[in-house]
Amino acid sequence: MKKTDKAAKTAIKKGERLNSSTSSTHIVAAPVKALSDQTADQDETLNANEQKLLGECETDIDKNMQGAFVLGWRLEQIKEQKLYRTNYSTFANYCSKRWDFSKTHANRLIQAYLCENHLKSIKDVEVYVPTKEAQVRHIADLEPEQQVVVAHAVFEAVGDGSASAGDFGEAREMLYPKPKPVVKETKPKNDAVAPVQIDPNLVSFTEIKKKLQNLYNIFTNSAKKQDGLNLIGKIQKDLELWADWEAKQVNEREAV
């Protein structure tokens, strides 16, 4: 932990330098006339209906901010207890048929929930608990104790401010940089080029392009927004399949 503590202090100092520089360059006095124009025709006090509406809006926003973690929590329960077993043979089949997304995406959501839940349980050190899946994505693959070190560095850097996904990515790279991929040069036997085997389940890029065009046409018609959302889910599934296939090809090449 000595190395990580030293690295964390470096990240903290860097965050303090960023805070001091931004605080000195973003202080701009607003013209008095501009402020008066904004408030002259509007009472700053909310009435009962406005307060109720504000509460409802902020509640829904908060639910959506935590949406990825709620999904991961429920998917983790279904996966671990095999709650899908009555109607589906595997968890991957359940995700595909029931929710129209891949097992890879489901596992990503589960990892996000487990990481966020772990950081919430930390009491002996101050950490920045992520509120978005994009933040967790930078540290979900780390060991639990390493997640704490990065989250502590982010907390020290932003203080009472809000952390972005970039803040997590920067702290992660400083403390636990990801290894650079090693490209192996392999020469096919007899100078022959091995043919690429395309997974028959993959949707062609031409078909995906057509879906995107249909999506554009749908969103120009507000009455068909739900159709647009359904099409987005299908496109996401197609792209997830391509990503899985690509990762498989890389693993097979590295194994040669």
How would you explain this protein's 3D organization?
The structure is a single chain. With 256 residues, this protein is mainly alpha-helical. The protein folds into two domains: 128 residues, no CATH class; 61 residues. 65% of the residues lie in helices and 0% in strands. The chain has eleven helices and no strands.
Beta strand count: 0
Rg for CA atoms: 24 Å
Write down the overall geometry. globular
- Main sheet summary: none
Q: Proportion of β residues?
A: under 5%
Report the total helices. 11
Mean pLDDT: 74
Q: What number of structural domains do the residues give? A: 2
Secondary-structure map with pairings?
Layout: H1 2-25, H2 32-39, H3 48-65, H4 67-80, H5 91-99, H6 103-120, H7 133-136, H8 144-158, H9 165-175, H10 205-219, H11 225-255
Helix pairs in contact: 1-8, 4-6, 8-9, 10-11
Task: Briefly say what this structure is.
The protein is mainly α and 256 residues long. 65% of the residues lie in helices and 0% in strands. The longest helix has 31 residues, at 225-255.
Short key terms for the protein model shown above:
2 domains; mainly alpha; 11 helices; single chain
